[in-house]
Write a structure and sequence with these properties.
Blueprint (H helix, E strand, L loop, with lengths): L5 H33 L8 H14 L6 H34 L1 H6 L7 H11 L8 H8 L3 E6 L2 E7 L5 H15 L11 H7 L5 H22 L14
Antiparallel strand pairs: 1-2
Helix pairs in contact: 1-3, 1-5, 3-5, 6-9, 7-9
């Protein structure tokens, strides 16, 4: 990798702190849920369901939860809300950088790629000059299956777990968002490939393959300094 600029280092620091806070928030939510289960109280999966019902549960089931346990859970809930605020603040800073940085703007022309991925990629690889081709970037992310030969045949194994787990996760999340909206596929330049691959591949493998394609497109945009041209569409970007 080439030496990073100060702007890249700042971007990476923002993403690293955000990632750590998200992990802490997830751990906090899981602990709240575990304590409730120990009290015989099950809550629907998902952070939103827990957030919306927790205070009501603590009020309505106070005869089943000891005062000490209630105080512990309330404390964890307050930690959760504080983490939400810090994550939101960092997300705002990341959004501001994405709005001003030309490479980020070009990357956000790709379906599924928003401020998080665009700034994460620019912070990690700049203009992508450290890679000779998009496949190399995909391999660095850990999105390219390992290859090995047997009996004269080339076999694709599982994807590598090397590289940037954080960016790999973001690209796979973006791919899953696109997969949730098949009515948009024919609007993308890779739509025909996606429609052909969907019946043949398991959902997880399809998401990984699409994430790899998005990563290769992102690298190409950084190297060419040209935006991804596609018709207007509605898709959640990450």
């Amino acid at each position: 990798m080439h030496e990073k600029t100060q702007d890249q280092l700042d971007l990476q620091a923002l993403h690293r702190v955000r990632s750590r806070l998200v992990s802490r928030r997830t751990a906090t939510i899981n602990q709240i849920r575990a304590f409730l289960i120990e009290q015989g109280i099950a809550v629907r999966t998902g952070a939103t369901a827990l957030r919306n019902s927790l205070l009501t549960i603590l009020k309505d089931r106070q005869n089943e939860i000891s005062p000490r346990m209630r105080d512990l859970i309330v404390g964890l809930y307050e930690d959760w809300m504080h983490l939400d605020e810090r994550i939101e603040t960092l997300a705002g800073e990341i959004d501001q950088i994405g709005e001003k940085e030309a490479n980020c703007q070009r990357l956000m022309s790709v379906p599924g790629i928003g401020p998080l991925i665009s700034t994460g990629v620019v912070g990690a690889i700049g203009t992508g000059e450290a890679f000779e081709r998009g496949r190399d970037f995909g391999a660095w992310l850990g999105l390219v299956p390992r290859q090995y030969s047997t009996g004269g045949r080339s076999i694709l194994g599982r994807i590598s777990k090397r590289g940037s787990k954080y960016l790999r996760t973001l690209f796979i999340q973006a791919a899953n968002v696109i997969l949730m909206r098949p009515h948009n596929w024919d609007r993308f330049s890779f739509g025909a490939w996606l429609q052909n691959a969907a019946p043949r591949l398991h959902r997880n493998k399809l998401a990984t393959a699409l994430a790899n394609k998005l990563a290769r497109i992102a690298w190409s945009i950084l190297r060419s300094e040209k935006a991804f041209h596609a018709p207007h569409y509605e898709v959640i970007a990450i």
